[in-house]
Inverse folding.
């Protein structure tokens, strides 16, 4: 892919760009993502923080758990970012906030056991990454 990727919130108050490079895109079915987004899953696009540039507005963050911070637009509530507290090397951008989401098709999924039953079979072609042990360790902190 050539050129920067752009995106933003629903109301346009927040705009950002992502510099060209590898995109680590996957579907998260965890219950925390379901609750925070109001959707059965969220597509997250992982990148190095140095490739993320805020062009306009402010991303408001809150600690959604002991291990993570979620970013959103304070004006419209759009989900924008997710950061693990113990991983400064990656920021995750909500795939639905990209101007052209097709540039970051999901390559994996996590927490499929939390997937709502009506989603069974929807994304079975994607391999499952086993990250539960990692997150269970974070929950125990």
């Amino acid at each position: 892919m050539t050129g920067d990727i752009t995106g933003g919130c629903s109301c346009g108050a927040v705009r950002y760009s992502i510099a060209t490079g590898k995109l680590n895109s996957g579907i998260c079915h965890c219950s925390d993502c379901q609750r925070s987004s109001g959707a059965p899953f969220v597509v997250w696009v992982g990148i190095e923080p140095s490739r993320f540039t805020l062009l306009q507005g402010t991303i408001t963050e809150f600690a959604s758990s002991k291990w993570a911070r979620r970013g959103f637009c304070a004006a419209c509530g759009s989900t924008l970012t997710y950061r693990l507290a113990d991983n400064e090397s990656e920021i995750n951008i909500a795939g639905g906030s990209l101007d052209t989401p097709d540039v970051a098709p999901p390559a994996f999924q996590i927490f499929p056991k939390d997937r709502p039953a009506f989603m069974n079979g929807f994304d079975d072609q994607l391999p499952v990454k086993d990250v539960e042990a990692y997150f269970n360790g974070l929950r125990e902190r």
Strands lie at 5-8, 15-18, 24-28, 42-47, 52-56, 59-63, 68-73, 79-84, 91-94, 108-110. The helical segments are 31-37, 132-139. Residues 132-139 form the longest helix (8 residues). The CA atoms of residues 26 and 34 lie 14 Å apart.
